[in-house]
Amino acid sequence: MKSEQAEDVENPDQVAGDVIGNTAYSERFVLKILLKLANLDTLKEEIKEKSFEDDICILWDMTTEKDVVLFLQKHEVLKLINFALPVIEVSRIIEIIIGIIGNMCCQKEVVKVLMKMDGLLATLIEYINTDDSLVLVQLLRLVSGCLYLANDEEIEIWMNLFASVEYSSALYFILLNSSHKDLLITALENLNTVCSNCNTEKFRTKFYTHFVLQHALDSLTAAFTEITVKRKATCSKDKLERVQIISLQIVLNFVGFENSYEMYEGSIENVITLINVVLKYYEEKLVVNKEIDTDLIDILSSTITIVDVLKITDSPEKYFEPTYNIWNATSAILQTDKNGSSFEENDREELKEFIAKVRKPLAVLMCYYLGNVSEDNFYEVIEIVDTVYEEILTWVTNEPLATNTSKRVTKYRSGKKKKFNVVLE
Q1: What percent of the chain has a predicted confidence (pLDDT) above 70?
Q2: What's the pTM value of the predicted model, to 2 decimals?
């Protein structure tokens, strides 16, 4: 049987004046909850009741509706929460309340109000040090939502809040140590949002001071591995690909400073693992599953920057081999299309455009490897690509890179020719 509270939420027979905006939700139901939050004398007892949790959980769902958010704003719900939150000790209730604020902060007008409430912001940001994973998920969602809509003045406030609670250290601790998949994904999204909105010209110094720490990439790659390797079977395809893309974006942000190599030299092996997982995934997607994904173009471009800054020239299987396999797949696709295929005319044009765009970063990545790898690894890979090297080189527009690689290949071929002539003699 439905509870009285549940019936109050959405009742087709309710008085027209009781509905919130264009929704079917009841004003009376919401006002009852707000009254309970306002009465601090009875609130501690109220939150022990299952019915209270049920009611605010329903309210949480309701806050996906803009009209409900505006109704709550009209009744200054953030002020009520500001007074109520410090006396609430039940983690589930805290999670729901922060979740409600997070939903409300999808509206810019709510963010503007919240950013002027120093006390509530200080209370909220302190929850970054909680050990409750579900509370952390909602807090990180809230912070990300606010940053996404923030202007420069509001980002300044967030940067100061981050410093006040050592936010980055807490965030990196979560990434390094948590095994809670949803928390890790939310934490990665949060760090990516921080990078996108705070690593700007105006806040670059503060971002560097607070977030660019030696253990940052180790924490990132630990979370990445937990999700994409250990928890891969439990992740949807969309989430898996999202994690891969934003992880590379985060690495790009951290290696974009003058001393990046010195800062992250100790993390190179972990970054190589991340790159390998991403490239192998997209290699399988194209080579095995025959799926065209334009994200691969940006992934390769990001990888080029990362391997250049961190001077990554590991064994061929780490990133050279998947890159070469993807190159071969594009060649096979072109040949298949030439000989006749099942592609419609529109699909063919899209396919040609994709290959034209993806071949340049593929070529650059392979030439970077050929130009900088150790002698032993160079001899191993040049034997593989020697017959298609000239074709690869035509896609490289970076003259210093092309020249450096060509010198090495020419030297190798000259030496090989001399050995051959000696054998003939």
Answers
A1: 91
A2: 0.91
The per-residue DSSP string of 43-83 comes to HHHHTTSHHHHHHHHHHHHHTTSHHHHHHHHHTTHHHHHHH
Angle at 284 between CA 281 and CA 286, to 5 degrees: 110
- CB-based contact 125:160 (threshold 8 Å): no
Q: Kindly list the distances between the CA atom of residue 185 and the CA atoms of 189, 224, 295, in Å, as whole numbers in the listed order.
A: 6, 9, 19
pLDDT tens for each residue of 27-38: 999 999 999 999
What's the Cα-to-Cα distance from 8 to each of 3, 56, 62, 71, 402, rounded to whole Å? 9, 13, 13, 16, 71
Token pair 């139901």 is found at 29
CB 370 within 8 A of CB 381: yes
* Whether pLDDT at 420 is above 50: no
Confidence label for 10 from pLDDT (cuts 50, 70 and 90): low
Contact 138, 95 (CB under 8 A): yes
Taking 3-state DSSP, the helix, strand and coil percentages for the chain, each rounded to the nearest 5, stand at 80, 0, 20
CA distance 153 to 131: 31
- Per the rule left: phi > 0, alpha: psi between -120 and 50, beta: everything else, 344 is beta
Whether 9 and 58 have beta carbons less than 8 Å apart is answered as: yes
Sequence-ordered list of residues with C-beta below 8 angstroms from that of 81, at least 6 positions apart, any chain: 37, 97, 100, 101, 120
Q: Where are the domains of the chain?
A: 318-425
Residue 101 pLDDT exceeds 70? yes
| 8 Å CB contact between 354 and 325 | no
The whole-number pLDDT of residue 1 equals 32
Distance separating alpha carbons of residues 377 and 382, to the nearest angstrom:
9
CB 135 within 8 A of CB 96: no
Q: What is the pLDDT of residues 149-176, one digit of tens each?
A: 999 999 999 999 999 999 999 999 999 9
